[in-house]
Amino acid sequence: MAIFTLQHDLQQNSEQNNPFCIILGFFGYGTDGLQNYSYLLTAVYQYISVVYPNKIIWRTIKSQFCLVIVIWIVCILYSLPLLVTGQIIYNIDNQICQIPLRLSLPMVYVAAIIYIIPNSGILAVYIKLTRYVHQISSRAISNHTLFHARRELKLVQRTFILIPRILGNTDTLQICHDIENAISYESQVFYLYDPRYYDDIHHYSISSTNFSVCSVEPGTTNDLAIIVIPRILGNTDTLQICHDIENAISYESQVFYLYDPRYYNDIHHYSISSTNFSVCSVEPGTTNDLAIIMKIIGKNRVPFGIKSGGHSLNPGFSSTKDVHISMLRFSQVNYNPTDQTVDVGPGLVWNDVYKQLQPFNVSVLGGRVSNVGVGGFLLGGGYGWKSNQYGLSIDTILEYELVTPNGTIINVNNKTYPDLFFGLKGGLNNFGIVTNFKMRALPQTLVYGGVLLYDFLEINNILNAAVNFQHNNQDPKAQILCDFTSLGGSVAINIIAFYDAPIAPPNTFDIFTSIGHLGKLQTRSFLSLVQASPVVITENMRKPGVEKVRDLFIEYTLASIPYGRTLVNFDVEPFLPSYFEKSQGGAYPHSPSNPLFPIVVQFGWQSELDDQVFINATQTVAEAILEAAIQDGQDLSGSKEILYPNYALDNTPLIKMYGKNLDRLKSIRQQWDPENVMYLTGGFKF
Ligand SMILES: Cc1cc2nc3c(=O)[nH]c(=O)nc-3n(C[C@H](O)[C@H](O)[C@H](O)COP(=O)(O)OP(=O)(O)OC[C@H]3O[C@@H](n4cnc5c(N)ncnc54)[C@H](O)[C@@H]3O)c2cc1C
């Protein structure tokens, strides 16, 4: 069809009813129907595989092949009347042969056969499958069966949504027409009936292809930037605000748009579901410029995102569709030997911080994984390798440089603004944007440690060793992280051991090295020892709790196999019971009387269809571990069960993270942000 249209164009052919063109039109109707009936066939197949899993005959290649042949025959047969009665004629505007686009019997016939019948069939399957999944959810069946049924339901739902979306999305269609009218002759818009549309949407992998309402081929940067992008993103007002920011800031700051590679670097996140395409990204280079930006944002009440290292796993916490602020240019690491402090910028990841401090033999209490960002980590709490010795990162922060929601620059410490200082220690982005953290410099020698890898069969021995370590270790310099990971069904069990001196005292980690393993513990730089990852809390590591972690890990590793390349990652992070003794207080409650420690429960998956399945799984696992801890006799009632904000899912109630501090935090926020400017950005809000 593409070749035909092109030839027609090149030859400036005005011949109206070329037989070849009519045959192409005939096949066009046949293939349209073929597509919809194959969706119907897929939906029926999915229904049978869930409701009648034992009817294998349906799944054989022979039966599937027969059904495909039947559909082909039906689709050719129903298009024949259009051909023989001469309904397919040349449409000069669209440059293809089709039946005239007006209310007529052939048009109704085509609509019914090609669209209404197969789509009604898919709808019927969808309703039946929904009812079935609803029924089995209330029955006691294996997790695997329920996972499978829900997944198939989502696939049918997606199929059902696809076709009306393309055909029925009149708002978007109007936007496509607007774009068509606005762009220059160098750019073009294509729709479903144009072969160039298929060329535009085609991807290397079919799963990456989506049927859009139209496809746009901008031919000039101007068309792309000025007209197409804001319309696609639905937001010309925000584009104007981006321009206002651009005009107001100094040369040390910059604004980037979709066509600039630096834009993609700014909006990139560790987890793809946390990335949003904003209208522009802004890289403030000075605190003054950031203050100007905050004033423009507040005045226009435009949604914005603040990103440091982009490791938040909650979608929308550090991203936006409007004005994205990347803190990248606040990349200072200044060691002050006189008062033994370090000024650290939120534009860095921990790797950079440790690297720059290494020559001075000092470090700060930061992240255990190199690419986690300074900003989010420090504003949420901060569990690090030195937490047994110095508490959380927030216990080592002495001062914050802050741009408040109304664009004022202030230095916040215990003396200048004690309430705000309290709020910033765990209160995330509720009080403004931090441009500098003044932290305690901590002495740093070489360290001892590394990663030990174990065979899955050693899982019980490792758990026993970890429980023994937790009970017997009294040395605050020794810390471990017990990591269970399965990626696409392949399981790895690791112990990451850390000792904050060049050599660990004899026997410190023998309990782990005596079990068959790969890898070795050795003297190395602090920088080279990194690894870790989100979410429940138990009081102390006891065997029943840890056994529950093991059982759940095995159960969910098996249950995730049908979902393709998935990640199941549980980390047990034992600290010394005394690790909160260094607590300096703050928004995130972490008092010595309540020394809870975090367990990371993390799932990674590929298809957005499975989002809810894995979010539910995370919650179920968290609740099951908590239940096991309570059954084991741990007192986790009421405000004692404090969840860590940096690991918590986005629907976690504030009271579960901030307990008795919540009322005070709400009143501090009200005092500093009466206009609710920080409500315009993502994250937990007081
Ligand atoms: C692989 C991995 C390993 C991890 N390991 C640990 C660990 O060992 N210990 C631990 O405690 N946590 C750990 N975490 C959790 C981590 O602390 C949080 O994900 C944290 O939010 C990451 O910070 P970020 O700057 O990279 O995130 P971002 O996504 O950039 O930001 C997170 C939040 O902070 C806000 N924010 C960022 N910068 C600023 C600023 N300057 N001013 C105001 N608000 C700001 C953002 O708006 C957003 O709401 C880990 C997470 C991952 C994914």
From TrEMBL:
| Any single GO CC term annotated in Swiss-Prot or TrEMBL for this entry | membrane
Grouped into one coarse class, the protein's main location is: membrane
The organism's superkingdom is given as Eukaryota
Q: Which InterPro entries match?
A: BBE, FAD-bd_PCMH, FAD-bd_PCMH-like_sf, FAD-bd_PCMH_sub2, FAD-linked_Oxidoreductase, GPCR_Rhodpsn, GPCR_Rhodpsn_7TM, Oxid_FAD_bind_N
This chain belongs to the protein called FAD-binding PCMH-type domain-containing protein
Recite the lineage of the species. Eukaryota, Metazoa, Spiralia, Gnathifera, Rotifera
SUPFAM superfamilies attached here?
A: FAD-binding/transporter-associated domain-like (SSF56176), Family A G protein-coupled receptor-like (SSF81321)
Q: What family does the entry list?
A: Belongs to the oxygen-dependent FAD-linked oxidoreductase family.
* Pfam families linked to this entry: 7tm_1 (PF00001), BBE (PF08031), FAD_binding_4 (PF01565)
Which UniProt keywords are given for this protein, alphabetically ordered?
FAD, Flavoprotein, Membrane, Oxidoreductase, Transmembrane, Transmembrane helix
Q: Where in the cell is it found?
A: Membrane
**Looking at the keywords, is Protein biosynthesis present?**
no
Q: Which residues form the FAD-binding PCMH-type domain?
A: 272-444
Instruction: Please give the PROSITE patterns that the UniProt record associates with this protein.
Output: FAD_PCMH (PS51387), G_PROTEIN_RECEP_F1_2 (PS50262)
